[in-house]
Design goal:
Blueprint lengths: L6 H11 L10 H8 L3 H13 L3 E3 L6 E3 L1 H12 L2 H17 L3 E7 L2 E8 L14 E2 L5 H8 L3 H8 L15 H14 L2 E4 L7 E8 L5 E9 L1 H4 L3 H18 L5
Antiparallel strand pairs: 1-2, 3-4, 3-8, 4-5, 6-7, 7-8
Length: 253
């Protein structure tokens, strides 16, 4: 039996879905043409979405982009996924094995968001915490997620990406970043060498789902003086953790 849809909610959903196809802002005229509806009808729906935080209006153009409420829902969705439930024990195990923080992240829309963080009981860092947005180019997690991404989507994400320099070690060009991604995919491991923060290095691995797609990545990080002497041991543990979490998500090589 076909379910009866509430028309106004369906139209609001249609408006939000247009942003899955467009990178830039959209205006009332754009929505009206696509939906074949009068501007007055569309305007009332858009105004409601704006007041609820699902859309934000650009003062300079009068057009709309997705609002913070959409992003917050995405973060909440990501944090409730099976991935978190299945992976938490392995993330905690890796943290306690080396007594260093471990982060896990994934894409929420076009941003990489930390969905899980575990720290040793004797330490507490204010940043980054779960829910933080992290850069593509200067983190283990970012490198891993982009290395395994469809090339078309990766090209789109990098077309206007700014390679901000955080430290002298930060990769600052698309060409160098793409070469780094080739190494990451070839080795199945991502490295961070004081590229985001001086004095912080990391080693990370991918998480595969049942289709063989990389849906998340995790990384153990710490001071070079404590990470580098155990580099090979950590790499081995990261590979093992990657295999175990992926297996629990029904990934088969």
């Amino acid at each position: 039996m076909t379910k009866r849809l509430i028309q106004s909610i369906k139209r609001a959903s249609d408006i939000l879905s247009f942003f899955m196809e467009e990178r830039g802002p959209l205006g009332i005229t754009d929505f009206s043409k696509r939906m074949d509806l009068p501007k007055t009808t569309v305007s009332s729906i858009v105004s409601t979405l704006e007041s609820l935080g699902y859309l934000e209006k650009e003062p300079s153009t009068g057009k709309y982009r997705l609002g913070s409420a959409i992003f917050n829902l995405g973060v909440q969705y990501a944090s409730n996924m099976d991935l978190v439930a299945q992976g938490r024990a392995w993330v905690e195990r890796l943290c306690f094995q080396f007594m260093e923080p471990v982060n896990a992240g994934m894409f929420v829309g076009d941003k990489i968001v930390l969905i899980m963080r575990k720290e040793p009981d004797d330490r507490y860092m204010i940043f980054p915490q779960a829910g933080s947005i992290i850069p593509f180019h200067s983190t283990c997690i970012g490198k891993i997620l982009l290395a395994y991404m469809d090339s078309g989507k990766r090209d789109r994400l990098l077309s206007n990406y700014t390679f901000d320099q955080f430290t002298p070690n930060t990769i600052t060009s698309k060409e160098l970043f793409l070469k780094e991604l080739e190494k990451v995919k070839a080795e199945g491991i991502g490295f961070e060498n004081q590229e985001s923060i001086r004095g912080l290095v990391g080693i990370g691995g991918p998480v595969f789902n049942h289709t063989g797609a990389v849906i998340a990545a995790f990384a153990i990080s710490g001071n070079p003086d404590t990470i580098e002497p155990r580099r090979d041991e950590i790499i081995s543990a990261v590979r093992f953790t990657s295999e175990q979490i992926s297996a629990q998500l029904n990934f088969k090589k």
